[in-house]
Amino acid sequence: MMLAPFSWIRPEPWGIHVVPADCWIDPARAVDRALVTHGHADHARGGHGQTFATPETLAIMELRYQTREGAVPVAYGETVDLPGDVKATYVPAGHVLGSAQILLEHAGERVVVTGDYKRRPDPTCPPFEVTPCDVFITEATFGLPVFTHPPIAQEMAKLLDRLAAYPDACVQVGAYALGKAQRVIAELRAAGHVDPIYLHGALEKMCRLYQDFGVELGELRLVADHDKDDMRGAIVLCPPSALNDRWSRRLPDPITAMASGWMRVRQRARQRNVELPLVISDHADWGELTRTIEEVGAQENWITHGREEALLRWCQLYQKRARALALVGYEDEDD
């Protein structure tokens, strides 16, 4: 009996179910067999029987969620044979260290699940690779035309200019612990900032993990090991939750900054009392989302994880078949 096209892959509330292989992509609850795109908490979790992911993502999951049993490393470009005559190939997504798109092949059909991705260069991870397919499952975190991310060099210049203007203070940058903090550090180094960068303790282990995988971050120091005067004229990185916390009192006259794609929305910056919004995102912006759909050239586009309605409407206007998925367990990161 002939199966309907793409009937072997089903979006369910808890994740994307690959039916012949009885496995799930980024499931929001524990399953026997999970294929994980990257280590952020809304895509990765512990408790699975088997977890297929890149070595970097598995290391991140072990650090964050104490997962080790059942780990199956899959390198970029490697193809894994799954039950039910399904093949899975991991392709760089350009989001964070270890992030991958997953190309699924079955019955002559190709499906790409992107997880989260970005198209801008990033010194901390391999770039996104366009992978032709029949069904393209794309995120839509910044799926509104208002979201156009500026060049990161421009945002680094804003940060360094503010630092130079207030040599007796420090600039305290809120940055997500996985991916954003390490990218900001690496981009500062690329911009010529060679001075030590100070870290909140919550960022230390993830930065060390990045360094273990060969990502150069330069000299990093823990805030807890130093006095206020040591940090004058310095950049201090912390989780966004620490920006207005008592912890900040140990810093010398901190100028509050935050690195996030959401800093494009002025109200978000005001809500967090951010003096220096830095529009730095690890997701594709509106123009990159639509360009990627064009370049992939899929028969169908499935849209999830974000502002699905606007991207769905864009697909309709340009005669591209599309549908919005209703997955649970996904939430905005402090991107």
Could you provide a short overview of the structure?
Helices cover 22% and strands 25% of the residues. With 335 residues, it is α/β, with parallel strands linked by helices.
Strand-helix topology:
Blueprint: E1 9-12, E2 15-18, E3 23-25, E4 33-35, E5 50-53, H1 55-65, E6 71-73, E7 79-82, E8 86-92, E9 100-106, E10 109-113, E11 135-140, H2 152-165, E12 170-174, H3 180-190, E13 197-199, H4 201-212, E14 220-222, E15 235-238, E16 254-259, H5 266-271, E17 276-278, H6 286-296, E18 300-306, H7 308-317, E19 321-324
Parallel strand pairs: 3-4, 4-5, 5-6, 10-11, 11-18, 12-15, 12-16, 13-14, 13-15, 16-17, 18-19
Antiparallel strand pairs: 1-2, 2-3, 7-8, 8-9, 9-10
Helix share, percent: 10-25%
In terms of structural class, how would the helical and strand content be classed? alpha/beta
Mean pLDDT, to the nearest integer, reads 94
Radius of gyration: 21 Å
Shape: globular
Tell me the name of the CATH homologous superfamily of the largest domain.
Ribonuclease Z/Hydroxyacylglutathione hydrolase-like
Instruction: Tell me the fraction of residues in β-strands, as a range.
Output: 25-35%
CATH class of the largest domain: Alpha Beta
- Supply the number of structural domains: 2
Count, helices: 7
Largest sheet: 7 strands, mixed
The largest sheet has its strands arranged as 7-8-9-10-11-18-19
List the uncertain runs: none
CATH topology of the largest domain: Metallo-beta-lactamase, Chain A
Q: Element order, helices and strands?
A: EEEEEHEEEEEEHEHEHEEEHEHEHE
